[in-house]
Design a protein that fits this description.
single chain, 524 residues, alpha+beta, Thrombin, subunit H, Pdz3 Domain, 4 domains, six-stranded antiparallel β-barrel, six-stranded antiparallel beta barrel, 25% helix
Length: 524
Amino acid sequence: MDPRASGFWVRLKANRPAYTLTILATLTLGILIGTVISKGVRGQESKKGAESAAPLTVPSPQQLSNQFSQISKQLEPSVVNINTESTIKNPHRRRGVPDQGGGDDQNPFDDFFDRFFGGQGGQQGPIRERSLGSGVIVDAKGYIVTNRHVVEKADRIRVKLQDDPPGVLHDARVVGSDQETDLAVIKIESDKAFPVAKLGNSDSMQVGDWVLAVGSPFGLQETVTAGIVSAKGRNIVPNRQFQSFIQTDAAINPGNSGGPLVNMAGEVIGINTAILTDTNAYAGVGFALPSNTVVSVYNQLIGPDHRVARGSIGIEFAAQENPAIARVYGVSGGVTVANVIAGTPAEQAGLKVGDTIISVDGKSVKNGDELVADIASRKPGTKVDLGFIRNGKKQEANVTVSDRAKLFAARLGEDDEAGQESAPKESKLGLTVHAITSEMADRLDIPADKGVIVQDVRAGSFADDIGVARGDVILEVNKQPVNSEAEFNRVASTLKSGQDVVFLVRQRGGGRQGGTIFLAGTLP
């Protein structure tokens, strides 16, 4: 050791305070150097480990849902909640029990409509029913499009708007309704203009396009659900040629009926009408009437007659195209006539069963839908030139288009919307009957010379109270056969207040062999 250094330490030790401070300073310096070196090493190791992983980010909510929310805000003010009140007498009454098998002989047609539009439960006796539905304002003056089944037979209709205070409802009146398409127009009054929805062209929609359904499912106002167009041109109700639906998987539930189906431009391209379900709730399949149909019906309902007039020539044909028919009749397209109704323009023009209609006024028709759409769009009284093939030869016939409602008014399940001069009168029993034509008998599989068919039953009448329903065939009244309108009216005219009345009735759908029951009561 250097003697000078040794002397330094000897002198430092002699001065203890200085010696102690020197030792502490040395230790502190060493600790600091070690800490810095350690952190540097750990930082380098951490940096090497993170080089292969990218940091995560949270996307903006607006990027995910902005389009749906903008459409909802734009449309919701024009979508309304519809409240209806009506008196229902003896809903789902047990109308008789079959001889064998037991159980309630509920009509299969009722089962079908329950499946699409929902049932009413199993209450007995008169009740005051309140129902909910939806609608969409299409005119600033308060004109609203909804479903006919939402407002049908309602004693009172009230409408709630989105911006209305709680408890505020607008009384509405029915402007017009159309049974064929299940559409109705109602109107509310106000001094101010109402928010209006914009209608789009339903023909532009393609399978797979996004859509929104807006309405009041289960009374929950301003509900929006999203889905896609699942299919187009769906026909779900038998004998309803003018109901061709857009199918969607956007959630539609009871209360949505009458509300709009909307495209991504915020345009109404359909009116939500029905669901396919076994539980009366959403099962992934809903149906909306296309806006192009809605516009056509609406424009006629707001007209002076407040009804839809459709043309018809009085023929029938197979609802589904069948290549075998074309092969047997030797044609490659068109509509082969299966029936020409007596007394109609088609019969008067000389059309026959087996003729295949191939054109209307020179424009070719490929199938029944095209033919119906063309003829139905024409005003009654106009004339058309039909091109058809008979026994392999092309021919033409000039046909005068008639009013479809008048041609088919007597048929079961269709209203006499036009009001015929020869319409049967309602009896004191509260029902009107019609003679059974051979055509009705064949269609319903019942004898043509037995009984009269019930055409209408007035709500709250004696007939309604004891359970007589439209489509029933009355065979006897108080043991007296009634095989014509005249016989029924003669017997009915002899009945007096306080007298017991017993109908022997073959229920709708009972066929030739059975389904007859007694319906009875005391005439008030």
